[in-house]
């Protein structure tokens, strides 16, 4: 089954404790992206990647890091989480090849609480 | 900077009505526009994607149109059903397939039986 998976689905942590949220897709997609969703602010793109070792900042990259060492994986790293990073996080992927629809497919989300 | 808005913010209709959701964007230089639905506490489900060269796309009771020059897209839902109740989001991708994606704030739809 074609899917985007994220782990963990729920995470409660404390300020300053480094964490990683994993994202993996099995569709051989080139484009992968991280978003956060907050009440009243909607979905905002954090980082995106066009292919292995190629990443770029979205609209809210501060406080986050990403890496793309393999095509299928795109982890989101919070090196020193703060309470304002409490949010619902989504990973998404889409193909960039010719003759494709470029639809984004979303993971189920990770609810992060930083105390 | 691209900005995406959606009107109305919320909509409540009786079952069976046809309805239109609106999405507007400030920069007409987009690569594509995608409509999603999101159920409470859930992820996003793709509904329709329109490439910048297309004018509309249809899937079942859904029809999405795109007028790039005026910076507008509409999602038409025919014969609405209670199961259509959800938040509907539009998202635009920038000038190329490699570009940023900007989401609108969404329209919360409630279809009353």
Features:
heterodimer; A: 115 residues; mainly beta; seven-stranded mixed β-sheet; four-stranded antiparallel β-sheet; 0% helix; B: 113 residues; five-stranded antiparallel β-sheet; 57% strand; globular
Can you offer a commentary on this structure?
The complex is a heterodimer of chains A (115) and B (113). Chain A has strands spanning 4-7, 10-13, 19-25, 31-38, 42-51, 54-57, 65-66, 76-78, 87-94, 105-106, 110-114. By secondary structure, chain A is mainly β. In chain A, the strands form two sheets. In chain A, strands 2, 4, 5, 6, 9, 10 and 11 form a seven-stranded mixed β-sheet that branches. Chain A has a four-stranded antiparallel β-sheet with strand order 1-3-8-7, with no helix packed on it. Chains A and B meet through β4, β5 and β10 of A and β4, β5, β9 and β10 of B.
In short:
Chain A has 115 residues and is mainly β. Chain A has strands at 4-7, 10-13, 19-25, 31-38, 42-51, 54-57, 65-66, 76-78, 87-94, 105-106, 110-114.
Number of strand elements of chain B: 11
Kindly report the greatest chain-chain contact and the residue count on each side: A-B, 24 and 23 residues
C-alpha-based Rg of chain B, rounded: 13 Å
- Segments of chain A where pLDDT lies below 50 for 5+ residues? none
Order of helices and strands of chain A: EEEEEEEEEEE
């Amino acid at each position: 089954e074609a899917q985007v998976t994220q782990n963990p689905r729920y995470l409660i942590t404390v300020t300053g404790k480094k964490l990683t949220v994993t994202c993996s897709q099995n569709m051989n997609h080139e484009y992968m992206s991280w978003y956060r969703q907050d009440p009243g602010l909607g979905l905002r793109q954090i980082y995106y990647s066009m292919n292995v070792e190629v990443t770029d900042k979205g609209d809210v990259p501060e406080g986050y890091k990403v890496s793309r060492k393999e095509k299928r994986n795109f982890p989101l790293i919070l090196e020193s989480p703060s309470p304002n990073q409490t949010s619902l996080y989504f990973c998404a992927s889409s193909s960039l090849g010719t003759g494709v629809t470029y639809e984004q497919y979303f993971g189920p989300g990770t609810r992060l609480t930083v105390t | 900077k691209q900005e995406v808005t959606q009107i109305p913010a919320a909509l409540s209709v009786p079952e069976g009505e046809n309805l239109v959701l609106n999405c507007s964007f400030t920069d007409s230089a987009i690569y594509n526009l995608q409509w999603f639905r999101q159920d409470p506490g859930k992820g996003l489900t793709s509904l329709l994607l329109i490439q910048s060269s297309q004018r509309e796309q249809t899937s079942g009771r859904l029809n999405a149109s795109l007028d790039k020059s005026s910076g507008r897209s509409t999602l038409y839902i025919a014969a609405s059903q209670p199961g259509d109740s959800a938040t509907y989001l539009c998202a635009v991708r920038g000038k190329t397939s490699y570009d940023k994606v900007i989401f609108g704030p969404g329209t919360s739809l409630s279809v009353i039986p």
